[in-house]
Write a sequence for this structure.
């Protein structure tokens, strides 16, 4: 029997294989299948044979291609696996996306920098990861490229032109108002203008940018000109508008930028501010805020721009009129897109003061958290226009919900410094919310609070028909509960929204912080945090000497920066503070846990006596280890407590491990227990980062890039 003839599309990860495969599939009426999905299927059916996904062997890659070839229906397959053994696909149509490696690296970096979870990670780190990913397939690609019958193509976006690509930002508040500034350049210019600028960081004759590049440029311009990060970026289906410029404009561009531009290709994007970020504000000399911008009603703004555009139509070049008209239509479209707000909800982490949390098991839906908690709406009257509630309003709503759902009065309400988290919900949830509450909520704004029971009060119990007791809640050990939530989130991370994933991670951390504070209070162990501040090439900041204000002993082995966790202070806050005080470095992103469990150490009598002299009346300590990428120098708190690290240096992680292996094994080292803990932390950190790197360069990276 003759095998079906398929189309195999390959190229570097991030080259556009999926896009081209969909185009060919649609034009020929053929199904499209990713070989990454085929490997998923093979791994799930044969876990013992293939092992974990990030360690996939060549045998699995080859098996996925053979599985594809044996498919009866002619299909478009795409994946890097095709390059492994060119002989397998002989006789089928084979297409190689032939794109310069430098271009692929730029695309990957731009894509990563757009993802919230990677923001704050140094750009050099993303570049090194992209280069490593490229290096994995370079040899295979060059071999495949030279095979007879392989068609080499370049995507349309690589066609270069002499237009300067520019993005205009229609920044809005989600309520029909646009951020614009009055013109200061005279009557021939539009009465109001919006921020924006060149998409490419380096001026030049570039290919037409893809969406990731446009968004990366827009994000950069928003930070440089307005000092904000962006979210909810939309194009409303608008295509770029080309504006051919006159010779005087072209001459000015040649003199200013050294590039023979013919004109501008303008891209319009709407976005909402995701919060202030002044890290590079004004760095390019184009501060938009100096023009006194304000939020204006979108319809009124469009009317003013249209009136001016029509009045000056005969004076404008047709292309200039067209780009202004496109901007007006875009703003009018935005005015129809009023963004639904979030429903404010308070979630109660009720605990017994001994490290146990009151929670009910989830028995029906594996996509939900394994346990759920009491809580409900903060406002009595639901309305999308309700403002962000004050802490007093959150507490009042929480107390009401506790009476209605549990029949308890509360005491010792705490937030541990956690702010509200937005959770975007799907269409089904939104439809139910609309039917039940009559409001087009976009999702939930979650407010977490911990509290204990003060007394029983059944006066309002079940008055709203939502008694929490019907779910058979029980007290669960806090760390165990947090671990189950984290494991559940990881197993469902490709099935739930990124905001829900972040929310579950936040709840788990909140519960862990509750456990830290309560366990330390009960057992009189000093809660501590130690930070592994690292560079992209995995060198960790450590020192063998320290200021006199810190230590209880002298040492001649490596020490990580760290110190005590203050009451109400989160692990992340404590780590950032200690790193600033002891090293003079900020972090390029929040410190994170890396699989190292908290370590409890009982102090011996001699050590306890030394601690008492320092005013520390504890039986021992509980150390939490967090890691963070190194940020900029910040000496604002350095040495504040007299415990700065002296002669600190970034030590290669392998050298650090070797040194700690030596010192922890010395028979005369009476504090070897501390060194053993640091050694375990260094090993866990190395394992975590290598696994993370493998995760980046494995097939899941392609899936994440398109999620």
């Amino acid at each position: 029997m003759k095998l079906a003839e398929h189309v195999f599309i390959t190229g570097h990860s991030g080259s556009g294989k999926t896009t081209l495969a969909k185009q060919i599939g649609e034009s020929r009426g053929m199904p499209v299948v990713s070989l990454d999905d085929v490997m998923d299927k093979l791994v799930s059916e044969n876990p013992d044979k293939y092992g974990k996904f990030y360690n996939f062997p060549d045998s699995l890659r080859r098996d996925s291609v053979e599985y594809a070839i044996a498919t009866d229906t002619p299909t478009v397959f795409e994946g890097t696996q095709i390059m492994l053994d060119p002989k397998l696909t002989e006789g089928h149509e084979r297409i190689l996306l032939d794109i310069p490696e430098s271009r692929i690296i730029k695309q990957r970096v731009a894509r990563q920098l757009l993802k919230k979870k990677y923001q704050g990670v140094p750009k050099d780190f993303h570049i090194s990861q992209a280069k490593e990913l490229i290096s994995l397939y370079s040899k295979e690609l060059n071999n495949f490229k030279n095979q007879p019958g392989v068609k080499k193509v370049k995507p349309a976006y690589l066609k270069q032109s002499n237009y300067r690509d520019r993005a205009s930002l229609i920044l809005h508040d989600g309520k029909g108002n646009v951020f614009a500034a009055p013109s200061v350049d005279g009557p021939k210019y539009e009465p109001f203008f919006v921020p924006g600028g060149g998409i490419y960081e380096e001026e030049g004759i570039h290919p037409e940018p893809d969406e990731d590049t446009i968004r990366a440029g827009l994000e950069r311009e928003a930070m440089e000109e307005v000092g904000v990060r962006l979210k909810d970026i939309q194009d409303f289906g608008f295509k770029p508008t080309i504006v051919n410029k006159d010779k005087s404009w072209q001459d000015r561009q040649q003199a200013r930028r050294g590039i023979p531009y013919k004109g501008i290709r303008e891209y319009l994007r709407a976005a909402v501010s995701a919060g202030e970020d002044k890290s590079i504000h004004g760095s390019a000399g184009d501060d938009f805020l100096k023009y006194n911008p304000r939020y204006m009603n979108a319809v009124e703004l469009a009317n003013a721009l249209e009136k001016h555009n029509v009045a000056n139509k005969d004076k404008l070049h047709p292309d200039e009129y067209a780009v202004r008209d496109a901007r007006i239509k875009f703003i009018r479209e935005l005015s129809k897109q009023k963004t639904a707000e979030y429903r404010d909800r308070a979630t109660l982490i009720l605990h017994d003061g001994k490290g146990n949390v009151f929670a009910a098991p989830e028995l029906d839906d594996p996509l939900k958290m394994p346990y759920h908690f009491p809580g409900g709406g903060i406002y009595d009257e639901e309305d999308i226009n309700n403002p962000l509630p004050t802490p007093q309003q959150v507490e009042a709503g929480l107390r009401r919900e506790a009476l209605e759902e549990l029949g308890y009065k509360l005491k010792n309400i705490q937030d541990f410094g956690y702010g509200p988290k937005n959770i975007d919900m799907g269409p089904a949830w939104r439809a139910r919310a609309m039917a039940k509450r009559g409001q087009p909520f976009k999702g939930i704004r979650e407010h977490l609070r911990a509290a204990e029971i003060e007394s029983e009060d059944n006066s309002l119990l079940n008055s709203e028909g939502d008694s929490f007791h019907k779910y058979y809640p029980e007290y669960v050990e806090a760390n165990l509960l947090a671990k189950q939530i984290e494991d559940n989130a990881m197993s469902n991370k490709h099935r739930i929204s990124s905001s829900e994933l972040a929310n579950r991670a936040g709840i788990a951390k909140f519960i862990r912080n509750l456990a830290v504070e309560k366990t330390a209070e009960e057992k009189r162990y000093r809660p501590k945090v130690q930070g592994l501040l690292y560079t992209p090439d995995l060198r960790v900041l450590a020192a063998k000497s320290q200021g006199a204000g810190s230590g209880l002993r002298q040492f001649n082995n490596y020490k990580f920066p760290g110190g005590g966790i203050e009451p109400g202070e989160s692990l992340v806050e404590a780590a950032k503070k200690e790193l600033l005080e002891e090293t003079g470095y900020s972090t390029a992103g929040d410190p994170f846990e890396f699989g190292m469990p908290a370590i409890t150490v009982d102090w011996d009598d001699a050590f306890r006596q030394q601690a008492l002299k320092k005013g520390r009346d504890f039986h021992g300590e509980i150390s939490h280890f967090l890691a963070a990428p190194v940020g900029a120098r910040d000496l604002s708190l350095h040495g504040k407590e007299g415990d700065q690290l002296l002669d600190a240096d970034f030590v290669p992680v392998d050298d650090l491990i070797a040194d700690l292996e030596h010192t922890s094994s010395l028979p005369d080292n009476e504090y070897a227990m501390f060194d053993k803990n640091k050694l375990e932390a260094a090993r866990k950190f190395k394992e975590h980062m290598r696994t993370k790197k493998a995760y980046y360069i494995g097939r899941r990276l392609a899936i994440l890039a398109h999620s």
